Amino acid sequence: MNGLTEVSSHKCFGGYQKFFTHESSECKAKMPFSIYIPKQAEKGKCPTLIFLAGLRANEQNAAIKSGFQRLAAQYGMIVACPDTSPRGLNIEGAEDTWEFGIGAGFYIDATEEKWRKHFRMYSYITEEFLDLLVKHFNVNPEKVGITGHSMGGHGAMIFGLKNPHLFKSISAFAPICNPSISPWGVRAFKGYLGNDISTWKEYDTCELVPLYNGPPREIFLSQGTNDPWTPDKQLLPENLVEVCKGSDTVTLNMDIREGHDHSYFFVASCMEDHVKFHIQQME
Amino acid sequence: MNGLTEVSSHKCFGGYQKFFTHESSECKAKMPFSIYIPKQAEKGKCPTLIFLAGLRANEQNAAIKSGFQRLAAQYGMIVACPDTSPRGLNIEGAEDTWEFGIGAGFYIDATEEKWRKHFRMYSYITEEFLDLLVKHFNVNPEKVGITGHSMGGHGAMIFGLKNPHLFKSISAFAPICNPSISPWGVRAFKGYLGNDISTWKEYDTCELVPLYNGPPREIFLSQGTNDPWTPDKQLLPENLVEVCKGSDTVTLNMDIREGHDHSYFFVASCMEDHVKFHIQQME
Question: Hey, what domains does chain B have and what are their CATH numbers?
Fold first, then answer.
């Protein structure tokens, strides 16, 4: 497969869970990704879900921990998971903390000098990764949805709202809803984008909802009531609830999960509802 | 909870996935375990499945990777996963290789001087872990089944065949069926039990089947056709097939999985059939 290196392939629920690397021109780095290819892809193009992982995670977490393969097999859905940042680039300070740098790309295009060459996760997903999927796999480009966990849920919502032509459905698991004012988000946006907070807004779901001008869109959002990041005001779903109340085109479908935390045990518990949501929205 | 330390607890499919440690008197070490407690355990005693992990694995692998929680929730089954050996004991050479020592206890009671004080996984499971489960959780002691992956599948079969009064059902995922003559098994048995191979037989499923004198027992065994350990003759299910042909009381239910390998993607794909098997056998 031109430009892709298959790292491993595992039969799983009648399809194959595969792991690849490729040389990314956007990030100027070798980027790994995982992809589940259901049996249905042997016969035709399939609806496809992109799952974006959270802080510290990578292309493997959802593939190993969330149990989506059983559902992807059932619904004939491809599921692709990119990494959360470029790695191995010897950028000074890139590995000092788990909240910023390696494993914490925040799905934005950095503009600060130190980061702007490689930390281009926004363009990587929209300009390169999606094309790669369509070119190399049996992805139906008319039926691509996007989801993610925590920082990846933030990513899914900004990608979906800024690119309704690319993504037909949006969901999120315990996402960072308002990164411009949450501690993780402020640190990342200051580091990658600099001190001019007007530039932060284009990557903040709560700022993007009022500007959304695509077809009506429902966001399915699962949030546990026992999430340890809630007291720290990292996620702020309440702000997104407020913003969506004022929108004619973006509807927030809040799925409150009593007693659930922020782990993949929560993600796995909600996964079936998310897969069904995406399949239904893509119809 | 007396003698147990809860490390973490995660709501999952309506129940809780919990992680504990306790001080083991058999292994003279702090031992971790994981346990899934379905909602049904709030109201009464539940059928319980013990899952034994393979080489290098621990109490977390099945809980994170195999997706059993959805099924355990559906069938009201507790699932408990012990570790694969004691750890952190500064035994010389215990961490030299992944095939022997730490993470490779082989579910036997060592007799060789260097190992016999701590490496007592056989007695740990039968004399201590099972009692601990019954004492601290809503385990129905009349409905306990045992399963495992690879080295853990070997463990499940020897525990089940040697203790039909304790374990009412046996299954295995790609188990080491004939360790006395497989490279992994020979290394472990020589190391833990010494050179007298007559002592190895009591921990070898292929030797135990002809000696089995309990009630009729069916072993459900899943094996992938693309398992990389097959060419190395580590697993030898074909030997178990032959031995069971000569048995009146032990039936081998071989579940051959076309194209599957040895990973947890294989385990996850087969899990539903195993849970259903145990529930049915326990009725």
Answer: 4-282 (3.40.50.1820)
